[in-house]
Amino acid sequence: MLTSYKRLFAVPGGWRFSLAAFILRLPISMLYLAIVLFVVAETESYSLAGAISMVSSVVLAVATPLWSRVADQFGQNRVLYITVPIHVAALGAFVFLVKSDAPTWSWFLAAIIFESFVIGSGQMVRRRWINAIGDDRKLMDTAYSFEALVDEVIFTSGPVIATLVAAYFFPAASIFTAMGFIVIGSILFAIQKSTLPPAHPKELGDDHSLLIRDRFIQALFIPMMLCGSFFSATGLVLVGYLDEFGNRNYSGFFIAIWSLSSGIAAFVSGTIHWKLNEARRFINSTFALFALTIPIFLSVFFFEGNLWILALSLFLNGLAIAPLLTAGFALAERSVSPKRTTEVLAWAISALNLGGALPTAITGYIIDTFGPSVAFLIPVLCMTLSVLSFLPFIRLWRQKVTQTSYRDWE
Known about the structure:
Layout: H1 3-8, H2 14-43, H3 46-74, H4 76-99, H5 104-116, H6 121-133, H7 137-168, H8 173-190, H9 215-244, H10 251-269, H11 278-291, H12 294-302, H13 307-318, H14 321-333, H15 341-357, H16 360-370, H17 372-375, H18 377-388, H19 394-400, H20 406-409
Helix pairs in contact: 2-3, 2-6, 2-7, 2-8, 3-4, 3-5, 3-15, 3-16, 4-5, 4-8, 6-7, 6-15, 7-8, 7-10, 7-14, 9-10, 9-15, 9-16, 9-18, 10-13, 10-14, 11-14, 11-18, 12-13, 14-15
């Protein structure tokens, strides 16, 4: 069962850049919850915290594909040298503005700046695996599953770190901790030049229009975006729900349970030699995630206040997350020219981030107005729309379930 992973870590330099990327990516899972906890602690408003998260996610969704285009054309290290200092400085400015009771519009401005210069580490590490592995598709599937597992470890440990640091020190401390991980991780990632993917400068005749204009990228982007809406809405509602029962500081642990089950699914997925192609696996996983979302709502509706049943429902739901993301990233990568791999992976990640922005403000409003139990309807609605979003592209999806390579799709 572990043979695939042994082969993966025999790839020269693989474990080194993956470990560096782990440190660099850890703040991804910390910052969302850290900012929510920080803003709620300062203002007691979930609506405001949700609105800041929404604006941040929209900017992030636009900025990361653009920076990834730069990474494809000029190299990953150039992007890191530009983005990291500005990103970290703007995060510090955000904390200062909130603590100094500056005008609320300035908080949003700082959030826009730090998300405009975000580090697209998720797509960068996957691009490094592609460069290091070459044409071995089975091993590349293992690499995608492994990075999905790393994502889940990140999303398991990050919220716990954020809540513990905020609880035992002060709310802004979790943001400062994330800033430290960003600086250390970016340095460790940048110094590993032996595995640095080659840059692909623009050449005459190359198509460099935005990939989102491609109809299939749109067909993949929309359900992933709505899954991202589900993830963020669920996370915000969990914080509000646990706060209602006096357990706000345990929100990170419940999110960790959710991520842990997804990590288990990612590990198992990496050992399987799939007979189904990525398109079919993505569709199946989306429907599975929808079906496993319903028990979360029912656990709150019929067993309000029973946190054990809620934890079990989250664990079951998480089993469908990693297979969906693994298939989605593999599907995106295999649908474009190798010269644009980082960009297409960024669009897939941006779909999740943009989706994460869409429900946060309205979810925060519903929590403040009607209570968190009612707000659990939002995650169910998000997954319902994700399943329905296949319908406008049904003919295209029927074609793609029989095709697996870029050459087939040209």
